Amino acid sequence: MIDVEGDASSEYGEFPLKRHLGMDVGGDGAGTAHLTIGPEHLNPNGVVHGAVLFALVDTAMGKATMNAIEAGRFCASIEVSLRFVRPAAAGDLTTVATVVKRGRTVVHLDARVVGDDDRLIATAAGTFAIIDL
């Protein structure tokens, strides 16, 4: 299993969906998002709902982007493509997102979602905007 110790959620910020899903967010460099699957994460077929996987990926990518940009700047998703490899129904899910390329205004990322048995659940590619508020 991928280690997600050292939750940096206080640096990344709190938000209601993170609390609702029970995500832990962290990572120095790469962004990580982790959750333990519960009944609230399942679709009517008894496997993790695709939207839950998307939330993990989007959150991990956001954390990785925030790690790659200067303090005082922010980010927003432009595009995320998620590929489902196999279903998950129990245990833990961990997403690790890495920066492929950081440009002046855009960051390109890849991510992988694995179960607690290290089997691949999903892969993703994304693009995030760097924003000055």
Q: What labels would you give this structure?
A:
single chain, 133 residues, alpha+beta, Thiol Ester Dehydrase, Chain A, six-stranded antiparallel beta sheet, 3 helices, 22% helix, 41% strand, globular, disordered N terminus
Give a description of the structure.
- With 133 residues, the protein is α+β, with helices and mostly antiparallel strands.
- 22% of the residues lie in helices and 41% in strands.
- The protein contains three helices and six strands, in the order ααββαββββ.
- The protein has a six-stranded antiparallel sheet with strand order 1-2-4-5-6-3, covered by helices on one side.
What is the compact description of this entry?
The protein is an alpha+beta fold and 133 residues long. The chain is built from 3 helices and 6 strands. The model is unreliable at 1-10 (pLDDT under 50).
- Segments where pLDDT lies below 50 for 5+ residues? 1-10
Helix residue percentage: 10-25%
The rounded distance between the terminal residues' Cα atoms is 37 Å
Structural class: alpha+beta
Strand arrangement, major sheet: 1-2-4-5-6-3
Q: What's the total helix number?
A: 3
Number of domains: 1
Rg computed from alpha carbons, rounded to a whole number of angstroms: 14 Å
Q: Tell me the CATH architecture.
A: Roll
Identify the CATH homologous superfamily.
Hotdog Thioesterase
**Name of the CATH class:** Alpha Beta
Pattern of helices and strands: HHEEHEEEE
Give the rounded overall mean pLDDT: 91
Shape: globular
Strand content: 35-45%
Query: Major sheet: size, sense and barrel closure?
Result: 6 strands, antiparallel
